[in-house]
Structures are given as C-alpha cells and as structure tokens.
Amino acid sequence: MIIGLTHYLTLGAILFTIGVAGIILNRKNIIVILMSVELILLSVNINLVAFSTNSGDLTGQVFALFILTVAAAEAGDRPGDIGDLLPQSRLDRG
Q1: Measured between alpha carbons, how far is residue 53 from residues 5, 6, 49, 63, 65 in Å?
Q2: Is the dihedral of CA 32, 33, 38, 41 positive or negative?
C-alpha cells in the first residue's frame, strides 16, 4: 500500500481536531492547552511538508522549519509564563 497525500492530510486533520478539542475541553489546565497548541502546530507542519513533497517544491518544508523554530522558542519561554500565572506564595514576598 502506497502512502499518498490523502493519508498525510487525514493525519493532519485528526491531529488538528484533537488539538482544538483539547483547547475547548480543558480551559483551566494550562499544560493541556499548551500541548494542544503544539499538536495544532504539528498538524500544520505535516500538511505543509505533504503539500511540498507532492508538488516538488521546497517552500512548504522551509515554512515547516520556521514553525519548528518558533515552537522551540515558545517551549523555552513557557516555564516563565507558567510561573507568572501561578499565585504568589508567602515565600516569594520576602
């Protein structure tokens, strides 16, 4: 069985749907929301690379690399963002 463009697009649609459902269903858990955003970015990358490979053009793969770079930068910034959202404890006040 040959894996074609439809298989990749179906996988991307499934991952995108799971990501959107994770954001809608878990509005209070910030970790699940951030993981859902990563799933959405992954589904976009799969679609970009699939279309790029299908058309024989490298533009989609270059965009996918930029998206991966932005996702890595976001992952490095997330512990600080989560720390800002947590309530202040007595130890932090000095």
Answers
A1: 9, 13, 6, 13, 14
A2: positive
Give 51-81 pLDDT, tens digit per residue: 999 999 999 899 999 988 988 887 777 777 6
- Say how far apart CA 73 and CA 76 lie, in whole Å: 5
Among 2, 46, 83, which residue's Cα sits nearest to residue 92? 83
- Please give the full DSSP string across 42-59, using - where no structure is assigned: HHHHHHHHHHHHHHT-SH
Put simply, whether the predicted model's pTM sits higher than 0.70 gets the answer yes
What is the chain's Cα-based Rg? Answer: 18
Overall average pLDDT of the 17-44 stretch: 91
